[in-house]
Amino acid sequence: MRKLFSSRTIVLLMVGFLVVVGLIAGSNWWSKKTNNPPFFQRVVNDLTGGVAKVISIPTNAVGTRANSLANLLNTFSENKALKAKVDGYAQNKVKLQTVEDENKSLKKQLDLKNSLTDYQTISAVTISRSPTTWNSQLVIDKGAKSGLKKGMAVLGDSGIIGLVTEVNTVNSKVTLISDTSEDTNRIAITVKGGSGDTNGIVTDYDADKQMLVMSSVSNSANVNPGDTVVTSGLGGLVPSGLLVGKISEVTSDSYGLSKKIYIEPASDLSKISTVLVAKSSLES
Known about the structure:
The chain is 37% helix and 29% strand.
């Protein structure tokens, strides 16, 4: 059986051991003298630091990406929250504008109500107005229970806007003066001119100009832009003296035989949120 170690191998191992011990002892002595870590410790530290650096590169990269993703999610959440706040502010602004418009309308109606000394008035709110019949009719929240009757005049914030044409128990339908259907009841009006009154009826509504039309007026009639137009009371449908609007433009018809008068309504027919129903003080 061969010997595991020859004398030569043993000698080499012993010499190597002594060299290692000597290096360790010398390294410790040198470290104490120079206040630096021993050589072998520095080697181990360097190797450990190198390995840690290599490992830290992908780790840091993943960490950076994770932080970026987290920041992105936080930014998205903050952006969503800020957008919701902005939408809330916009909605509040719309609500405030609506309240301000209604307040202005109510103030005008109060002045109008005080001027109607010969009439009792019933306040009502618009509860329905279809886009398909926007210029024709609307529904208010008062009916027979509140004393409304068919044919009563309905006023906006400054003047007449239509007539009650259908009465239910708790609501009523109002046909507007801008209704252009053939079977609508035309309102008799009077132009208060400087040299006398001119009677006629509202014959049409120009949706593009948003103005009432008074046609078939004699060329000799003295009517001018700025003249006041009121209800005449003729025909028995509408009481006299209710403000309709003022003349905006005077032209001739297509044949040049009569005048065609455009009237700017006293009340804005596109914004009717609250109304007054005029009831004669003679009515029970």
